[in-house]
């Protein structure tokens, strides 16, 4: 027992290494940008995205995965019958009897009731057991080593925002550092220790941006389809068979399920996801397709349109301000001189 306990403690400690690595990289990037580069006109927007990035990142890390409620545990009598019974068919009959009173509509590939022997609960729809967290996680997406936590119902919004703000953080760094990187490449910067910080800052930010952007794009696609990573690889099984679009309610309602139905909460890492994580509305399949499309798209088109317009305007403004230094007027010239003095130009 003692060696096993020691190994588990060591494993838990090692799981924090990726998180420590990310924090060290962010800490170094802050030093390189604020102390070594020190372009005052960019520090405000830099700190805004850094704050949002760290906020959403730590919310993802410290949000405890949500597990099934006690309602999904077997009652004492049925649990004793289930544990005494050796025949799988009879065990399934016991589970089916209990599941009749629960909002459970998905099954295993063999059409059996989804039951977790480790947690001893009937699994709610979209719930899966995580061997790393050693618990069943509601609407489990995946276990992420970079946050040392399970990404699921309780923190999926935070995870997507973390990817989004990490991408924007890298964009801000690349867009403001590239002019000094070009000067380094053309040998216009003297040999000081500051130029190496600036050089590696640009490369690290660019590499992280490329990798994070691909992951962000994939998860935004999942949000639009109302799928988890697990469901993208293995379609959930309903009474009529596997259906990869079983939980899709149209783009607007799919986005609202993760980010909420109030736009003022979309961009902040505060919990606003819809539902309780135990039951989910399935798509309409028994009415005319045109009627279903009309029902699914209502109450959301205007919000999605505003969401898209806001982001397009924001990225345009961000790009325009970085690629046209003259818009900053005298402040940019002054801070540019300050930064040159800092890096020795």
Describe the overall structure.
The protein is mainly alpha-helical and 345 residues long. It folds into two domains: 5-66 and 155-319, no CATH class; 70-123, no CATH class. 58% of the residues lie in helices and 6% in strands. It has twelve helices and eight strands. It has helices at 2-14, 17-37, 40-62, 76-84, 88-99, 156-185, 193-225, 229-233, 251-259, 289-297, 301-323, 330-343, and strands spanning 115-116, 121-122, 128-130, 135-137, 142-144, 149-151, 237-238, 241-242. The strands form four sheets. The chain has a two-stranded antiparallel sheet with strand order 1-2. Belongs to the DHHC palmitoyltransferase family. It is found in: Membrane. This is Palmitoyltransferase. InterPro entries: Palmitoyltrfase_DHHC, PFA4/ZDH16/20/ERF2-like.
Secondary-structure blueprint of this entry?
Elements: H1 2-14, H2 17-37, H3 40-62, H4 76-84, H5 88-99, E1 115-116, E2 121-122, E3 128-130, E4 135-137, E5 142-144, E6 149-151, H6 156-185, H7 193-225, H8 229-233, E7 237-238, E8 241-242, H9 251-259, H10 289-297, H11 301-323, H12 330-343
Antiparallel strand pairs: 1-2, 3-4, 5-6, 7-8
Helix pairs in contact: 2-7, 3-6, 4-5, 6-7
């Amino acid at each position: 027992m003692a060696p096993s306990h020691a190994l588990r403690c060591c494993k838990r400690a090692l799981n924090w290494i990726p998180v420590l690595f990310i924090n060290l990289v962010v800490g170094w990037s802050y030093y390189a940008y604020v102390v070594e580069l020190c372009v005052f006109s960019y520090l405000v927007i830099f700190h805004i995205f850094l704050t949002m990035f760290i906020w959403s990142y730590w919310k993802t890390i410290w949000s405890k995965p949500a597990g099934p409620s006690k309602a999904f545990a077997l009652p004492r009598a049925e649990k004793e019958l289930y544990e005494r019974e050796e025949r799988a068919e009879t065990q399934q009959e016991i589970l089916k009897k209990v599941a009749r009173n629960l909002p459970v509509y998905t099954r295993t590939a063999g059409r059996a009731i989804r039951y977790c022997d480790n947690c001893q609960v009937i699994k709610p729809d979209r719930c899966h057991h995580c061997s790393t967290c050693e618990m069943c996680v509601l609407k489990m997406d995946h276990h992420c080593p970079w946050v040392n936590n399970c990404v699921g119902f309780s923190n999926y919004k935070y995870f997507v925002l973390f990817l989004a703000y990490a991408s924007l953080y890298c964009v801000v760094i690349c867009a403001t550092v590239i002019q000094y990187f070009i000067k380094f490449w053309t040998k216009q910067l003297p040999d000081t220790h500051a130029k190496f910080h600036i050089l590696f800052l640009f490369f690290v930010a660019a590499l992280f941006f490329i990798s994070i952007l691909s992951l962000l794009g994939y998860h935004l696609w999942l949000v639009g389809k109302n799928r988890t990573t697990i469901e993208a690889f293995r379609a959930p099984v309903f009474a009529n068979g596997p259906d990869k679009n079983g939980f899709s309610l149209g783009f607007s309602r799919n986005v609202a399920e993760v980010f909420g139905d109030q736009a003022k909460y979309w961009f902040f890492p505060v919990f606003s996801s819809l539902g309780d994580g135990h039951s989910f509305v399935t798509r309409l399949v028994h009415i005319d397709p045109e009627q279903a499309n009309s029902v699914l798209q209502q109450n959301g088109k205007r919000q999605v349109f505003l969401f898209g317009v806001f982001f397009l305007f924001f990225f345009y403004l961000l790009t325009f301000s970085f690629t046209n230094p003259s818009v900053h007027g005298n402040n940019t010239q002054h801070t540019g001189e300050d930064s040159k003095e800092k890096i020795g130009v």
